[in-house]
Write the structure tokens for this entry.
Amino acid sequence: MAKKKEKEVKQQPVQGEAESQPQKKTASKSKAVSNAEEEPKESAKKSEKQASGKEQTTVDAPKKEESQGEKQHREPQMVTVNGAKVSHAHAFQSNKNPEDWFFTAKIDGKELHPQKMTPEDVAAYSKKELSVEQLMQNYYPTKLMKQIPAEEYKAATTLSDGRVIDKMNVYKESNEQSQNFGKWMLYAQVGEQKMSTTLPNHDLNAYFDRVTTPSQLVEKNLGQRLHLASHYEQFKLPEGAEIKDIRVSKDADNKWRISADMGDRGVTAKKELSFDDGYSLFHSKTATRQQLAAKYLTPEINEKMGVKVEVSQGLKI
């Protein structure tokens, strides 16, 4: 019995220590609080300075980010009628030929193919006399034109004479044996007629930018092959031209030729008519003698009239 009592006595202090430990912790906390309350004012000032310093650094950081963002973001120089954003529009000098200058820009972040500038535009650009919109109009006109809605584009397949385009396609000639190898071509099928021709750059851009319709594209580039009256409406004799007679005759070689009698100024040389123009004159009746004379004889008519015509030199791109 005495031994058991001793064991119980020994265990009691252990339980007491275990219970008193939380009290010590609370006491130490209270001491820490009291010590903190009794800290001198200088330490409080230091902590305030440190806190204010941290606040300043956190405020300054966003300013740096904002400034970096402002450098990266660039407002568009202009916005097209279709909502496309034009940026980075500028002219630059050729490395190979210092006399050549090129104009380029980006539309919605995509860089456009540089275009060679005319000497007049280079001079105006150096004097800051041309705006971005004017330069875009000169070198990328189809980018500024209103796009045709998709449904309207698909429906525009009727020609001016009522015929319908059954099929139209724009492709790049891949046949190495063809004289048009590597060139962009327009193919069209109207009824039983199947035909193709090379596309000029302006019409090619108009097609890809969807600012022209299939009927407009076919009429403009294949109107002669289709013997359309709309093709010949563009040809007019020079103003003031005194033409007494327009002759269309078949020569000994069985080819049709056209010439014009200008009275005292003489008779022009004969020019051979193409098969399609002859067909339009004699069979479909969609071309007149005056229109064909304007198409084939205008340079010589102007020469006999003493009219000087400036010949524009093509730009090499």
